[in-house]
Write a structure and sequence with these properties.
With 145 residues, this protein is an alpha+beta fold. 28% of the residues lie in helices and 36% in strands. The two termini are 17 Å apart.
Length: 145
């Protein structure tokens, strides 16, 4: 759930449709989610892990009209491909960045008001319910907000 929260946080957009699939027969477990934000903006989230979480890997890709952004975990690396000038940028060193989890920790520890609000939380839950429905029915689901 936190990967999806961060996807919404980073993109600052809400997906119109989602598709999610899992193959529990394949070891390690593989989960794939597709998000359609509209206006030629898409995202894939792929998670692979074994039952003991010793080889946990995640990959995300965001496509727009002129670039693709890929995030790969363990170790974390971001690759930005700019299609207009065929330029590739690799980012593998990060300063501590704020994310929804860090914001909630700051709220609990320091009473610092998070930038997340109730609408953002409700929108996240709408996306989660659509993903669950897609897993269950193996089809693309329109997200209802």
């Amino acid at each position: 759930m936190h990967l999806i929260a961060e996807l919404l946080w980073v993109s600052n957009k809400l997906p119109k449709r989602v598709f999610a699939t899992v193959d529990s027969k394949i070891k390690p477990l593989s989960i794939k989610m597709f998000f359609d934000f509209g206006n030629n903006f898409y995202s894939d989230v792929y998670i692979k892990c074994d039952s003991k979480f010793t080889k946990r890997v995640f990959k995300s890709s965001f496509w727009g009209d002129f670039k693709k952004i890929s995030v790969k975990g363990k170790p974390v690396k971001i690759v930005i491909e700019k299609f207009q000038n065929n330029k590739i940028i690799v980012i593998d060193k990060f300063k501590k960045v704020k994310n929804p989890i860090n914001e909630m920790v700051d709220y609990l520890k320091y009473n610092k008001k998070p930038s997340l609000n109730i609408d953002m939380s409700l929108n996240l839950m709408s996306v989660i319910f659509a993903i669950k429905n897609s897993f269950k029915n193996n089809k693309i689901i329109n997200v209802k907000y």
